[in-house]
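[#protein-structures] MJ: dropping GNAT family N-acetyltransferase here for a structure pass
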Amino acid sequence: MPQSLYLVASHPDAPEARPLIDALSADLDTRFGSDGRASFQDWQPHDPKHVFLLVCNDDEAVGCGAVRPISDSIGEVKRMYAKYPGQGIGRAVLAGLEAAAWQAGYAELWLETRTSNTEACSFYQKRGYRRIPNYGRYVGREEAACFGRYLGPVPAATSQPELQSTLGNF
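AK: finished. structure tokens for GNAT family N-acetyltransferase:
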């Protein structure tokens, strides 16, 4: 796959996003018995604290991910998916989400994955995420592995980032 990846700010219900979210949901349901579709029930499309990105290669959407607020300074990464594993798509999605989250005013990102999802646990740890105590609805759930990463002090004036950018090597 050529590496002409670029980010596009989008929405979970966008036609380009639906096949990716459906594939992710099917994979999660097969592997873990839950499809995660409830992630977007409280989605606020016009709220700059809600970020949804597509990673595209030429004209094909090949990855997606979202950030939603936990608090004013902490965002939660949701629905990370790469259509083609091992091609740098996941790294591009996460890097884009981190940049967009920081510009939206988040100082930290948290996320949850399953302890049995060793690929995801390793992926996040390699990118600077550290295990944190289970938070929110994951408290007391032994199958949940929660991770967090400090992004740094947020800009004085936050604004929506320009996300239609070409990505380098991730």
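MJ: nice. The longest strand covers residues 60-69.
AK: one more thing. The chain has a mean pLDDT of 87.
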